[in-house]
Amino acid sequence: MRALRRILLLFCVLAILLSSFTSCTGIFLLSTALLQKTEQIPEQKTEIPANEKLAYTLNDSDRKSFFTCLDELENLLLEKRSSDEKKISEANERLEDSYYHIATQTELAYIYHCLNQADAGKSQAYLYARTMRSDVYDAYQTFCKKLDASDAPGKSVFFADWSEEDFEEMRGYSEEHTALTNANDRIEVEYRALSQAERTEKAPELYLQIIRNNNRLAELYGYENYADYAYEKIYGRDYTPDDACQIHYYVKTILLPACQSALAKFQAKDSELNTEERWVVRALLKGEYDGAWELMSGYFSSFPAKEERDLRSLFDSENHFMTNSQSADAGAFTTYLYEYEQPVCYFGPGYHDGYTVIHELGHYFSALSSKDEFRLDVAETQSQANEWLFTAYLQNANVSRALAETILYYQLRSALQTIVLASLIDEFEQSIYQNPPESAEEIDLRMKAVCESYGGIEWFKKQFADPMLYWRSVVLENPCYYISYAFSMLVSISFYELAANDYAAAQSAYIDLAALQLEEGTTYCQWLEIQTMDTPFEESYYQTIAALAA
Fold first, then answer.
1. Both ends of the chain: CA-CA distance in Å?
2. pTM of the model
């Protein structure tokens, strides 16, 4: 019975993860009707893409089917008071199948919305699907609470494999949870409709609403603030916001000084490249990946036969969406369609380069390889480690030393930038949620204060990005998400170090990581220790990375 619980919670997480770390926020137009109450959103027309298996077909009959299955289960347990394990299991499986369909259709609705954000109908379809998913989540939680409070003889069968954490989640749930989630959905749609210029002015007011809603969500589950809640419940981290402060400290004292050195090395090596090599670099870093296909294909061929087939399967048309349309979302992401037991990747305009494909391929490959419960730090390590293993492969591929080292130092500079930006945003968000601002103006002041320990706002702007624009681009849709990029990048770089000495061993370790299924009760940090790998709370990680850049 626990399977549906896991999937319900997983899709709440995936809804947050759909925008990638490197993506720019797209722009689309919405009528004011879309910002009204979500229950007023009408049913949408079916859209059939070239691949009919991945068609968006959600309609009111799917909602009806779910509630029919739920009524059947409720009648069996509460009216007929059955304790027949077979009947209860079969009724629950039908309910799960119905939910898998709605959840999968919601992911497809988001993909088609991303493919054409100028189409208000697709935006409306996405809100329609999100609302339906929230409705069935609410109904399922309500049923579970009703059964839990009853003396029904079959409830011990239904709850047989629930953990204490499952019960805690269910018993703490209320309709207010769904109301707050739907309110955040509407704010997100309003935010995404803004132009970049409009976000400068309006994002702070929208963020204030998100902060209040998220802290109230945390309060419903007994947490002091949303940062504490998100770390544990949303992302399944085995470290706390207080623990992350150690990461902030090492980033500021050890890695910040290394960033300029890595950039200088990249620029020096880049100047040695010939014209043909520059085209390869462009294809890998900011162009179209097919310009570096020979290198990527060679990397895939270095894997054992089964893993090579899995890696190459991403490029089958039914497993990815790739567009250059200017009305599409500029970003890349991977999601999982549970109804089809299939991961799919999205690549928007400007995100077709080799390293973006390699990154998403890490998510895709791990989704094919592992059936473990979703853990964000594990997922991001699986994708970023693929980047570093590919970088190590290039060091011994049939390319010039200048080309191999140009890619290495670019990747190192990019990694440092990722870690620094993620640390900055996490420190900012901790401040925001632990001590909520009273006004929109106070939000910018808070960011300025955090920037002081990262070299000051003007220096940071010159080295990385404008923090005032950056927070407006990431924190509304991805609250308390970004520290995972720093955590996982720090771990991922160790795969490059291992590969530099023994590529076959590093590749084997990566295959094991992609298929990772943590034993019950084993945390990710504990797994790292079992693998004799340091955790990102050890100073040695930072010193090693700084030495690579030196």
1. 53
2. 0.84
